[in-house]
Amino acid sequence: MKLASTAAFTVLALLAGLTPVHAQTPAAWQPLSGDERWSNFRDTTMADPSFYTAALVSAGYSQITKAPPEWGEGALSYGRRTASSLAVYGIQETIHQGGAAILGYHPRYLSCECDGFFHRTAHAIKWTFLTRNTSGATRLDLPAIAGTYGAGMLSTYWYPARYQALSDGVRAGNQQMALSIGLSFLREFQPDLRRMLKH
Q1: Which segments of the chain have a pLDDT < 70?
Q2: What is the pLDDT of residues 95-116, one digit of tens each?
Q3: Sequential DSSP letters for 149-184
Q4: What string of DSSP letters covers 17-59?
């Protein structure tokens, strides 16, 4: 489904250094204020160029592969696919960050305060599924998981009728969750990659 291709192109954008890194490495734990949460939501959606770039590129890929074929070809079909990608990511982040605000969970990826490739890789995998609450305690990141699967399932309501929420939607959520691990890995190591590219 489109959700997976959108995430895949976001991964490529991060790898190319085109997307800002929305990560945090606090020396001392400091939870986000309400204003900071709103700023983070804006900066990772409406004000983030990759929010639109990934949707446009993903729609182009879906246009070429005619996915779904029922949406046809031409400019209007491309616009429909682009709108679908924007809606999927917007829903995902709204559920994620809205749920995080309600539960007092941190919405950003938390970089490792450790050294070594394998330690940082393990951290990136683990912290795809974990976050901190306002007191700094580690918690399962239920809002992020809900956003991933919720967006995939809700997207089936504007897809052709043959798409089912509990099969195609969950499958899209599984694909997105796997790609989220790749995003965490790139967020963890992108500062190092940028430093290497400057030399």
Answers
A1: 1-28, 199
A2: 999 999 999 999 999 999 999 9
A3: HHHHHHHTTTS-TT--IIIIIHHHHHHHHHHHHHHH
A4: T-S---EE--SS--PPPHHHHHHHHHHHTTT-HHHHHHHHHHH
Lookup: tokens for 54: 């990934």
d(CA 191, CA 194): 5
Residues 6+ apart with CB under 8 A from 66: 73
Report the predicted TM-score, pTM, of the whole model to 2 decimal places. Answer: 0.85
Place of tokens 């393990």: 122
Residues paired with 109 in a beta bridge: 23
Name the token pair of 32: 């986000």
pLDDT in tens, 141-157: 999 999 999 999 999 99
Q: In this structure, how many other beta carbons lie within 10 angstroms of the beta carbon of residue 193? A: 14
Which phi-psi region, left, alpha or beta, contains residue 117 (left: φ > 0; alpha: ψ -120 to 50)? alpha
> Which two structure tokens, joined as six digits, stand for 26?
């606090």
- β-strands 109-110, 23-24 pairing: parallel
Cα atoms in the Cβ-side hemisphere of radius 13 Å centred on 137: 5
What is the DSSP secondary structure assignment for residue 105, as one 8-state letter? B
CB neighbour burial string for 160-191, b if at least 16 within 10 angstroms, e if fewer: eeebebeebbebbbebbbebbbbbbbbbbbbe
* Closest to 36 measured CA to CA, from 181, 150, 26: 26
